[in-house]
Design goal:
This protein is an alpha/beta fold. It has three domains: 185 residues; 96 residues; 125 residues, no CATH class. It is built from nine helices and 20 strands. Helix 6 crosses helix 8, helix 6 packs antiparallel against helix 9 and helix 7 runs antiparallel to helix 8.
Length: 421
Amino acid sequence: MNLKGLSLQEQDEAIEEIASSLNIPKKYIHYDFTDTPYFVIQDRNYQGNNRLEDEDRLYIEDFDFKLLKKYTLFFIECDIYVYFCPTCIDVDTPHAFRFDGCVFYDSIVFDYLYLSIQSFIARHCHFLGDVDICFPFENDSCFEYCYFEGWVNFTNAIFKKDISFYGSTFNRCPNFSKTRFGGNINIINTNLDFDFFQTEEVIVSKWMEDSIDLDIKTHLSFVANDFRDSFRIFKNTLSKEGNLLDASNYHRVELYCKEIELDSKNPPILSREWIDRWQLFFYRHTSDHHTDLLKIISWVIIAIGIFGFGFFIVKYYQDVSILSYLSPYGVALSLAGMVCLGIFWVMGYIKKLFLFAGVGLISTLWIACYKPTLIFGAINLIDKTSRSGLENFILVLYTLVMILLLFSLQKTARKNSIVPS
């Protein structure tokens, strides 16, 4: 139906049909033709972003989805209790969906790929059930300032224009596997910046729910791979927009998923997947996959400190008189520094990583004062100093670890190489 230029009689007839379908009084429906003509379903006491009291909100418990074939509806401050599934009836191409300040108490399902949505506009909405939308979106759409409490699935969805999730909160990690973005995506101020343990918890939870509810004996690696594909798509889309810094954060979560996937496969020792698994483990702990500069600097200092302390212990067992070369003032300052670090850690002022980095820094300063060339590792093997086999082994092991750490340090520090090409 062409909504433009409806006569008053046609408006009244349409309002009568909508009210009957939704089982609500006609006084809550009015016709708006200022921009794109649509019918607004709202309480007349609506005050913009100020939510109404529960007793004043509109309850939608019936919905004939054939309305969507005839009218564009705009729901404002409504509590929707129906299982929102327009694909359960024959609707060729629904009009745009618009919701503001609504609460969905049941699931939303749009899962027929041969249908399409003109646009889906939702702002300040609360989705208590699952959201499963796999339609093509023809025009700009948005889910801004929304809260998604259940699972969110956009698998195979096609956003032909721009899509915005600005300011939205996802209680569970969304699935955007095989989603295509034709325009820009706005995911600023969302909570999609998961750490490793949050990512692992979400993947395992989804795997267990699928196994119980759907009786699908899917391997955990398949679920992890789906979530990895979601963050890969985010990364690639943001990279194309030139947003390299945010893209690097989603690449980091993508690598979390890859590590969880490899770990679930339990690959044979020394196989390619086994090596990849431990490489991901190493870079996650040392630099959070080249995104945390302070963390990798701390680990470089810790590595030097551990090496220095270990080298000193070996020297001490070979010659106890080495203690006579130590400055008593240096020993006192070192002990005082370690006591202060311990107090700061116990009081919660510093994290455990920085506690070890502080101790490592003290050890590094001792090396710098007495024999700074030791910091360069295996280079010391070419001088004429006589060393035991254990000392040479420590130098070689330290050098290999430092090569990995320094590679991660330079990659983390170089802004243009955060996101892989």
